[in-house]
Write a structure and sequence with these properties.
single chain, 176 residues, 7-stranded parallel sheet, globular
Length: 176
Amino acid sequence: MRGYFGIGAEDISKPMNLGALMRTAHAFGASFFFTVNAHPKVREAYNSDTSRSFDHVPYYPWDTIDDMRLPKGCALVGIELTEDAVELPRFQHPQAAAYVLGRERGSLSPALLARCRHVVKIPTKFCINVGLAGALVMYDRLLAHGGYPARPIMPGGPTPEMTEAPRVRRGASSTS
């Protein structure tokens, strides 16, 4: 898979949510994780993250939006349920992206939304848990950038002929 991504949250306050999001980011191969203005108690997230993501994925705890420093060329993508946001299944993920989710009981701040190059929404009837939202975004990115072929038309998985390379018969000669 080409490119890289990071994921984080603004104003997150529940350690279990942060731990779940970090564990999922680690599982999906995130290059970094970040928070902006996180509540001090989220430091307890280490106890809720059984994969010990802090040991494997760089974590950037920025105090303010102005403190945020993303790599050059990294597009900030806000995940927010707004009228003008692009629906996730219709979104082309940037090669280099940092996805930011809002707090548990609220939205991304207007100041952070203003810094986002793209705003994407998960097409649900109402907001969902921050950890689940992050997992859906990372899964969608994996489908988009992971090199997976189109899904089969019929229900079920791909047939063997769709997944196997052509076989060469051994022992057959071209003169026989």
